[in-house]
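Input.
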Amino acid sequence: LDAGKINNGLTIIALHWLARHGDRLRAEWLDA
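Output.
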């Protein structure tokens, strides 16, 4: 497997996850 493709895929997944959950996580951190 091409390591570049793996890293790019993980980056896309991470950015997508943060886009969906970032606001909730940020609120929890600010309340802590």
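The chain has one domain: 1-32.
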